[in-house]
Fold UDP-N-acetylmuramoyl-tripeptide--D-alanyl-D-alanine ligase.
Amino acid sequence: MTVLWTSEAMIAAMGGRPLGTMPQGVSGISIDTRTLKPGDAFFAIKGDVFDGHDFATAAMAAGANLMVVSDSKLAALGRLTMPMIVVEDVLAALEMLGVAARARSRAKVIAVTGSAGKTSTKEALRLALSVSGTVHAAERSFNNHWGVPLSLARMPQDSDYAIFEIGMNHAGEIRPLVKLVRPHVAIVTMVAAAHLGHFHSVDDIARAKAEIFEGIVPGGHALINRDDHRWRILDKLAREAGVQNITGFGEHSRSQVKLLACTLGEHHSSITVKIGGETFDAQIGAPGRHIVQNVLAVLGAVYLAGGDVGMAAEALALLTPERGRGARSTLRHPDGPFIVIDESYNANPASMKVALDLLARSSISGEGRRIAVLGEMRELGAHSRKFHAALAEPLREAAPDLVFLAGAEMAALEAALGDDIPLQYRETGAELIPLLVSIVGPGDVVMIKSSNGLGFSKIVDALTSRFPAEGTSCSEDARQ
């Protein structure tokens, strides 16, 4: 077993009280018994819905080496015999362990925030930096008050680079998290009207994102989208936070990470970038102008973190979109293949426009059609109907052959479109499934986009269950 933490180091970091015979150490940190691996330490965090203490027996059965539990819950655990570290508050103890992980690490640390592109940028950074050293990066979108300390606590001591995604819905949420992470480089991908229901304006969203600059270590770098309308706000707040090294990325003439040329393709993009007086060419394995913008931040961060920019640029040819964030699947209809673009993880006005542009650039074959399946954008507050209706113009520009809409707020878009584009509206995404399954055909390109809470991933799952992936063998079909 590779030891991530010795029991002794964990106890010291958290100020905990050991119970039972402590193991030498643990190989990982878990807060979910469904993904816990033998040798992990299980932290019994009490969440909004579940209390980890209720899963103590499951953690022991899954092979946890020890548990971190609350003193107040100790009596309720009865005669559980596995080793435990008893603390006052389990989440606070996880934060302490994260602080200890950061303190013992010599890694160059990069933090990423923004209204869109955080996870895609994090994954591109993971790929780009892997050619320069060992990389630790948060799993999935672990970017909140428990995900960030969990990702920190999981950081191996010998990591060369570490990447952390930091999200927020409200002002004040980034500040405590970035002070745990203490990045050498902090990236703001872009600022848009995401979570606008919790803010007075997009400028206020920019101010909340700028909290990430407050945790940058002395001598560290702020990496800001120079093409963003809120660049001046971010630049000003970075300086007020004491950041002396501010780097802009984009097409803007004053960008230090400057895009010189860009060719957008259906499946990839080719770019030329100037950084630190040198010019680099890169082919990006994922399509879209938004991915190009993210990659500019990635290459800038590699440069600022001391990585090999040339090798990073070459590595980006292997970049592929993730599930829910642009992943493409070719599925087999009885009469021929069709394509599904899965953008079901999240949606805001800016990312909706990007997804529609991707659909417009996608090639159809034969009598195929471009089909947009759009769910409502959540957390836009009083501005919601206005932003949904405003999608009519980018939809007309993308000119899909069919549009399917779902969610109460999408009624505003239906009204704004009128008879301009053939469309079907339903209250829920589930009601769209039988319509799509019956109408999709060979040569089609189906783009599915919504806020995650609407559950449009189930539409993707329904299509992939009904129509097997291209290249799947008959025996594999049978097993499914």
Notes: The radius of gyration is 24 Å.
